[in-house]
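Task card 7
Instruction: Convert sequence to structure tokens.
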Amino acid sequence: MNNNSNQPGEFDAVLGGELPPPVHGVVLGGIGGVKTLLRNSVAEIRCIGITQAANYGKEGLDLIIEALNDSSGQVRSLAYNLLEEKVEEPFLKGSRIKIKQVLSNFDKLELFTTLKDWVIQDFNPRYPLINTASIGYELKTIEEFNLLLQYSQVNQLQAIAIKIDGEENRIIFEILLENYKYLTGLKALSIFLGNNSRVIRDHSRVLKVYPNLNLLEIRGCCGIIFDNVQHNNLKTLIIDSSAFIQNFGKLELPGLEYLDLGCHNFVPINIRRNIDINYLKHIYSATCFPKLRYLGLRCGKDYNDIASSLVNSGILNRLIGLDFSDGDLGDKGAETLFNSRVINRLHTLNVSKNHLSPDMVDKLSKLKCRVIAESQKSYRHNF
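Output:
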């Protein structure tokens, strides 16, 4: 602490050890120390501030409510969970209505970790890396990637978005695998290889060498292959494959909360018949993905069958978001979803860009959950 001031500094607002400070440390300066923590650029330290705010009655409650708008999904999720816990505490009796209203109005999809949790900027090698805990960089060439790796503070960088088209995209995974020792702080990795990419890679190798990843997004690959791998920190997995996803059932992701699969052919199209359903059983498993709360299956086929298997699996008891958009879902599958006893446990159901009749869209609109059913394709009778 600065000996010339009685006020705690940005990184010494908690007494109890080295950074990051312990969750149950003593806050210096009371509520003022809590506010200092909440101004910190590091999400983990703001989480400590949110936890400490819970000890300061209604004034702390207001700080927790404000944290629902934090830039980090980690902070927002903690604030939401704390509010759910506090709503029944006797000393907050006069605030129960306020808390319930705040929780009711909050968009639960904001609880998940997404790339929006970081401010992504174009990489410019003429400037230093700044605020690496909250600012990520977009790389558009292999040259930019190599220049980034030369920075001494690159090991503190948390987020990278790679958007490389053309022939260079063939070697991007090799560069990621070869240089993982320089990117030990990486928590979010987004890779877009262009719409014409023919790259087929074992992407489980990326998970193995980047154990601290919270988010992995892969778009544009021709084929995605996974081998046996367990990753304990991954919270969000987003995949858009132009051809197939293979061996997805070998993944064990105990911390996964958000799974979004686009063009979800789990095996090459020429041997695909009716195999998707078996692979989806792995996704439904509470053993492999026990914390899964959002499931997106977009741009796929066999949605009527998938809807039936999903309802029978019981996974709707755990989900708050289900995205079935841009597929071949018809009234038959939509009726299966509608008749599920737990469908209204969802916060959001997205069935846009399918083959639903106007009557079915109107029927779904009467559900208590938020339903997105816009831009339906041509309706197919009895489909």
